[in-house]
Write a structure and sequence with these properties.
By secondary structure, the chain is an alpha/beta fold. It has twelve helices and 20 strands. The longest helix has 19 residues, at 214-232.
Amino acid sequence: MSEQIGGFSRNTDGESLLGGSALKSLLSPQITTPAYFYDLSGIFKRVSQIKAAFGDAPHLIAYAIKANSAASIVKTVIEAGGGVDAVSGGELQLALACGAQSRDVVLSGVAKRDDEIRLALEKDIQALQAESVEELQRIAQIAELTSQVARVSFRINPSVEIDSHAHIATGHDKAKFGISRRDWNAAFAKIKQSPFLQLVGISTHVGSMLKTPASYLRSAKVVCEVAQHAQAEGHQLEYVDFGGGFGIDYGDGPADPPHHFAAEALGILKTEGLGHLKLVVEPGRSIVGPYGALVAQVIQTKVSGARRWAMIDAGMNDLLRPALYGAPHRIEPLSQQPQGEESFRVVGPVCESTDDFGDHDLCEDPDYVVIRDAGAYAFTMASEYNARPLPDEVFIRDGKIVHHSPSPGIDSWLAARLKA
């Protein structure tokens, strides 16, 4: 298991660093907390590391843009040689606006609107990843109306259970995702029936937070079986897509790095006699998660019986994962090492009991805290609940701030609500 490149660390004085820069030194009157900080250099190196694992084999690293849709990050992924896995028309437009080549983009999602399907056809992307026989029928009808042949992939449900939170396990029989085994023949029949459909790929996504490749490889073998059947039926496949879901260490134990998953997946593809096909992988969290940190100010502490509370200016509206999934995030003092003896219950300002980040060791009188591994599924899930504006975003490259996206502030929220 290789050492992570970049991301969060501490110097000998105990100061929190991101991408080698002291986070405390990056705070200024222009940057208000809560604020997300991102290490673009680390993200670039992470994508480059995955690419290197493929060697000369045809491949596409389709970044799951839903993990973090900041243009500065999307452009960094593309500059490093990645493409995009989009799950909406908006994400597709963002990917193309950030410089992604159309054939480096796939569009997934169980309920694509007609306008999103038309957009994908117009932009001639790598493929529409169809998740049901009924969706194939809709794609065929829209393609016929626009006199186009739709490039499609079957996103199959491999019936593979994984050890993960129920909300992020997507490859089992009760999930809404993918074409189930009993419908595979009907899907192939639909392709044969319509001159407006071209089957170019077989894909899947088994779920998220995979710490080792075992479940990933089980689903990959199912994809290979379906791809072999498709080729035997005469379909000229261009790629197979094994999905993403590579986990990271949130403080609960290390995960195999994404380039290990890529190398193992490539091995399966060659073993199954499909090495001539392009291999698509869809990492999201593993590319950006470790390279983001949320800095928050401690508004006050409170003692209530035997419990001590630290009340911070970041809430579940800024970082929803703990409330939504019970997800852990390491929370530490910004400028000192955790002392190991000053335990606080860290909570936010939102008027909900679920606005709770758990127990963490802080220093005696903390002024700021850093919430680690907050690069993925954090700002993208943020809201303005309780009239709390979206947080700042700060982007670092080579230790320096290269872009600051300020909070829209409370006035923007107030103006919009007064117009509603």
